Amino acid sequence: MSAQNHSIVMLRRNFKHITRNPTSVFNAVLMPVVIMLMFVYMLGDAFNVGVDYVDYATPGLMLLAVCYGLGATATAVNSDMTKGIINRFKVMDVSRGAVLTGHVIASLLTNLIAIAAIVGVGFLLGFRPSASFVDWLGVIGLVVLLGFAAGWLTVALGLFAKSPETAGLAAVPLVMLPFFSSAIVPADKMGAGLKQFAEYQPFTPIIETLRGLLNGAPAAGDVIPALAWCVGIALVGYLWARSTFAKRA
């Protein structure tokens, strides 16, 4: 079998694990929807963002959906490393890279399902983007790139952690980071210090790019940093994951 076929087999294995773990399915797909309902229904009228709050919040919640399933990915990767599965694969004719690639692709596909759920619920709540077909292609492309980058970084964190429990905790900063960005409220409404952090952290330009694409008017000042952050995170995560995997396996 080729390395590609090995990756497909690993992807099927990971999806079976996900579907047999209701908690991971809830965290990855349903929890972002619950958070969306909470912010739009309970808190939406409290924020003055210049547009309907559901239109403002949906791009940020799409990014939040990417992050919410990362803890399960980190835990699964670490479990493979610490519970002997990798050692079994070592004595078989299995591509070493397929193990990691399977986790990344499974994480990416889970993210896409969660984002589709967010967008669907958003339409039910009154979300009305003015994006063209080309803009929607840009949204999909950026979401895929972000999911790919976050997947590799999460795999690296899972490999680096000493136990499945610490692996899950290692992904918590990635889950919390969107809350300290422009996902929920504009950065200029935040207090001193937090405002500057929100403006210069990686997720804010990505969210603003998604927001611009969905409004049909993406700004180059957001698009370029967003792409640079995604590519940089993907590269760091990939190199870190392969290096750690080679040492530990």
Give the topology:
Blueprint: H1 3-19, H2 22-43, H3 53-68, H4 70-82, H5 85-90, H6 96-124, H7 133-160, H8 164-170, H9 172-176, H10 194-200, H11 203-214, H12 220-248
GO molecular function: ABC-type transporter activity
Domain ABC transmembrane type-2: 23-248
Family: Belongs to the ABC-2 integral membrane protein family.
Q: Overview of this structure, please?
A:
With 249 residues, the protein is mostly helical. It has one domain (3-248). Helices cover 77% and strands 0% of the residues. The protein contains twelve helices and no strands. It has helices at 3-19, 22-43, 53-68, 70-82, 85-90, 96-124, 133-160, 164-170, 172-176, 194-200, 203-214, 220-248. The longest helix is centred in the middle third of the chain and has 29 residues, at 96-124. The mean pLDDT is 84. This is Transport permease protein. The chain crosses the membrane at residues 21-44, 56-77, 98-124, 136-160, 167-187, 223-241. GO terms for molecular function: ABC-type transporter activity.
In total, the number of domains comes to 1
Cα Rg:
18 Å
Mean pLDDT: 84
Q: What is the straight-line distance between the termini?
A: 21 Å
Shape: elongated
Instruction: Kindly state the percentage of residues in helix.
Output: over 70%
- How many helical stretches? 12
Proportion of strand residues:
under 5%
- Uncertain runs with pLDDT below 50, 5 residues or more? none
The assembly state of the depicted protein chains is single chain
Estimated structural class = mainly alpha
Largest sheet: none
- Report the count of strand segments: 0
The helix-strand sequence is HHHHHHHHHHHH
Keywords: Antibiotic resistance, Cell membrane, Membrane, Transmembrane, Transmembrane helix, Transport
InterPro entries: ABC2_TM (IPR013525), ABC2_TM_bact-type (IPR047817), ABC_2_transport (IPR000412), Nod_factor_ABC_transporter (IPR051784)
Domain ABC transmembrane type-2: 23-248
Family: Belongs to the ABC-2 integral membrane protein family.
